[in-house]
Amino acid sequence: MIPDLISPDLDRISPTVDVAALLENRFISTQVAELTLVFPATWVAEIWRVDRSQILDLPFYDPLLVGIATHNGRVTPLIAAARLLELAFSLPERAMVVRLNQAAGRLENVSIIVDRAIGTNQREELPTDLFTDLRDGSMVMMHSYLVPASLWQPKYWAVDN
Questions:
Q1: In b/e form, how buried is each residue of 142-154, taking b as 16+ CB within 10 angstroms?
Q2: Domain boundaries defined on the chain
Q3: How confident is the model at residue 138 (pLDDT cuts 50, 70, 90)?
Q4: Could you tell me which CATH number the domain at 44-133 has?
Q5: Would you list the DSSP string of 38-97?
Q6: Model's pTM, two decimal places?
């Protein structure tokens, strides 16, 4: 007989641990060119890799939107963090991607292309200015309003008659 493979019930394993509270003050650090882009851990669904050949280009949209890809049965839009931060961007053969969850609000299921994952930090390990100014020297806090709402609208081109 093959046992059922299910996710463990965290409340049953350790009823005193509040996972959401643990993540509330935790952040995921990534590298984008010379900058560190910091994501609230509560926003991150997963970090995965995508091959360039798996990305469907969307030429009628803002260049910030690199394209879409299918991952675990879901279509996810891909945004270049470098372009978001107004840096040079070149799509590698295999890109590292941070997929956001519902805690990211309107960016739910959006995937952000970064150069690499650096690690995790507690809130007190990060510069305090990062939480008020969003940017502290070489560090930038990811926030939903950094992505323009117009990103999801196709760009129209003029047709010569």
A1: beeebbeeeeeee
A2: 44-133
A3: confident
A4: 2.40.50.180
A5: EEEGGGEEEEEEEEGGGPEE-TTS-TTEEEEEEETTEEEEEEEHHHHTT------SEEEE
A6: 0.82
